[in-house]
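Quick one: Biotin synthase from Paenibacillus chondroitinus, structure tokens please.
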Amino acid sequence: MNNLSTCKEWPLLAQKALNGECLTEEEGLAVLEASDDEVLPLLQAAFQVRKHYYGKKVKLNMIINAKSGLCPEDCGYCSQSIVSTAPVNKYTLLDKGTLLAGAREAMARKAGTYCIVAAGKGQTDKELAQVVDAVKEIRETMPLKICACLGILKDEQAQRLAEAGVHRYNHNLNTSKANYPSITTTHTYDQRVETVEKVKTYGMSPCSGVIIGMGETNQEIIEMAYALRELDSDSIPINFLNAIPGTPLEHAGRTPAMKALKVLALFRFICPSKEIRVAGGREVNLRTLQPMSLYAANSLFVGDYLTTAGQSIGVDHQMIEDLGFEIELNAL
Ligand code: SF4
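--- reply ---
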């Protein structure tokens, strides 16, 4: 048992985070290995940091799966990969009208950010032009922020997206550098980092996060948080693996809800000012403890994920209201 593992210590970690200091690995391990009895005081400390930067506001994001399945990559968690036998929809890039209809749906759900996500290692220039065309019209007609997630980017593609008005670009690190080859062999961790750096070069806001529950150690979770702090990712989606039958990781167990809360507190301490989103797998891993996640995280996905269902928008809005929190519109 780590000696930094009582409720007396958590406010010190919060203060350290607010002072701009990074947690040591020992302190990070104390968070992740804390007894479940410590989760309430731990979240209370994380909440002080969250409140400092975001008050009680909750940012909502909605995803559209703009191109589904048919992906030649072999990401072990993904139902759209070439090595998955999961029965997912397979379609090429959605037309402009459908992408615009998705944006209107995001507005109806009070999402401030609309995330256009397409399967694949990257997109062709023709596909990118289709996205650019839709983004321009959304930007002209709706007060939405746009996040694109289109895989590895070429320089000119990054420039075209930025010029079209894409605010943010998502490219997750997913797991630690050491664990990466056991999850994906068709591209590398370093290629992921390069894309996030490219996003910053072209003036888009970087969004990069992780998937917890893919065989990583606690030390590796801390490494991921350090890597994202170093990358200065503005937005950090914390996904918890939803093991989909037919994927290589189908037998990975779920992350216990209490562990998921400790992970969220850890990221709040290590990346204190960043938008931390409790992302994919929220419903199946946190289950009835979902509301507690918002004491550390300040952002949610609403609606469905890429190939799995989310909970109803009414339940998400009710959860936020019941917590006494408030939806932040049009935030990035
Ligand atoms: S995560 Fe993306 S790149 Fe990897 S298999 Fe799925 S769609 Fe393809």
